[in-house]
Amino acid sequence: MKLDPAGGKKLDGGLSLAESYELCRRVQKAHSRTYYFSTRLFPAEVRPRVHALYAFMRYADEIVDHPHDLPLDAQLSVLEEFEAETLAAVSGEEVPNPVLRAYADTVRACGIDPGTITAFMESMKMDTRVFRYQAYADLEVYTYGSAAVVGLMMCRVVGVAEGKADAHAEALGVAMQLSNFLRDVGEDWRRGRVYLPLEDLARFGYTERDLALGVVDERFVGLMRFEIERARRLYEVADEGMGYIPRGRRFPVVVARELYAAILDRIEAHEYDVFSRRAQVSRPAKLLVAARCAANDPGEIADRIRYRRTSPAR
């Protein structure tokens, strides 16, 4: 099920909580094949929470990524209304949006800090007013709310207590988003956004005009190698924290990490041409990645089977 909040598409406000979670599952399946693939590997009691978290983020993202004819100030107003409704739902108020009913249930059940919700929404609102980032430090302000706090939310969903794992979870969230940024350079340009720091473009002598024309030359290759290395360093930081994830719930996170890191491998395999070919991982390749991850940690798979639940928590 595709979301279209900016287009005025309304969701059924009469759904039960269980039906709201099912709607979130369908939203994730429709919008993210890779993340949905790894989500299905979670135990049954965790999966609905991940579906709800994803659907919440996607709902906000769609407001700015597919705004139809909404001007920027109208996009901002819709985001602010969505934020207010989210916080109301989290505080226990009844709201009509079924995505928010499922998400608020997850927030309360898993102990997600409402401050991370505010940070996430602030980054979504930045997309209505910030379209270039001079330095990576400037981009980090955006990725903290759009990706790092998502890692923190996922920590709570999989049962990792606040503390030592947080920095690693933040790194994984940002690494995955940087991988998407590099894959979607051309698509983001067409939306009027450049997530590659301008100082990095200047470092390699690559211009926004080159970006608009889809130029792939030694300058762009150097730029992409630089950005890919930055993302891979963040994946390494994330790897150091995988041991904090409870046994039986670690495998899907490792698979997701490998699948998003594989985007970088595909970019390299395509000789860095992200303009005419989309760097994506095929389903057979995803299955091979999952099998390799399972073989690397058979004890995790045994624990996953041992603690499997037959029905999702609500």
**CATH topology, which one?**
Farnesyl Diphosphate Synthase
Total count of helical runs of at least 4 residues: 15
Mean pLDDT: 92
Per CATH, the class reads Mainly Alpha
Shape: globular
Classification by helices and strands? mainly alpha
Number of spatially distinct domains? 1
C-alpha termini separation = 21 Å
The value of Rg in angstroms is 19 Å
What is the helix content?
Answer: 55-70%
Main β-sheet description = none
Beta content: under 5%
Oligomer classification: single chain
CATH A-level architecture: Orthogonal Bundle
- Unreliable spans are 309-314
List the helices and strands and how they pair.
Layout: H1 17-31, H2 33-39, H3 47-65, H4 72-90, H5 98-110, H6 114-126, H7 136-157, H8 166-183, H9 185-190, H10 198-203, H11 208-213, H12 218-239, H13 250-269, H14 283-296, H15 298-306
Helix pairs in contact: 1-2, 1-3, 1-5, 2-13, 3-5, 3-6, 4-5, 4-6, 6-7, 7-8, 8-12, 8-13, 12-13, 13-14
Task: For the structure shown, list the relevant keywords.
single chain, about 325 residues, mainly alpha, Farnesyl Diphosphate Synthase, 15 helices, about 65% helix, globular, disordered C terminus
Structure in words:
- With 314 residues, the protein is an all-alpha fold.
- The protein has a single domain (16-306), classed as Farnesyl Diphosphate Synthase (Orthogonal Bundle), CATH 1.10.600.10.
- Helix content is 67%, strand content 0%.
- Helix 7 packs across helix 8.
- It starts with 16 loop residues before the first helix and ends in an 8-residue tail after the last helix.
